[in-house]
Amino acid sequence: MAWPKLLVLVRHAESEGNILSVAERANCDTATYSYKLTERGRKQAKITGEFLRKKFGLFDIYYVSYYERSKETMRIMYPKARAYEDPRLAEGQRGIWNILTAEQIKQKFPEEILRKEREGLYHYRPPGGENWPDIELRIHSFLGTLNRDCGDQKVVIVVHGHWLILFQKLIHHFSIEEAVKKYKAGIFENTSVTIYKGENKNGKSRLILKEKNIVPWEGRL
Asked: Is 207 a residue whose pLDDT tops 80?
């Protein structure tokens, strides 16, 4: 088994959810997985697609989550690609925090605010949602697929910001404190590009970070 010879991770382009406040998203009738790209997001995806095609050409394997913003980003970047939809690439599920405002939770589920404060960002699992270790388990499983089925291939994946932070936590062995710090510092930019290469180190195949958070559209939109 071996890692892909090239692994490119792209955070999805700007979506309708990105331009709404937390309260507006809670009151929105659209499911979080159904948010479409904004006009600006479509332009971001077009520019990033041009950057990737010029730098790497076509890929052997294309992966997306089942979220519409992930699929739409890939369709714009690589219109003719057959992308594999994998539920393990989904963003973290926030449960009641997706459909209720903080004030509504305070009124209906005050104990959840206390529990979140007590347990902290990493450990807290909201009703109907996931905590960070739940997401990491999905990523662990997906890493097994990459290592087993994508050896020596060129792979591009459209992912989500929080997912990408936890992916790097596993690959680089970040501590919980480091992962939380990176989360609070800000999610990766929309359609930013992070590049890994599979290399042999001490007789073992490793994923080696080459570049991170490249923003091809920066200064152009």
From this structure: yes
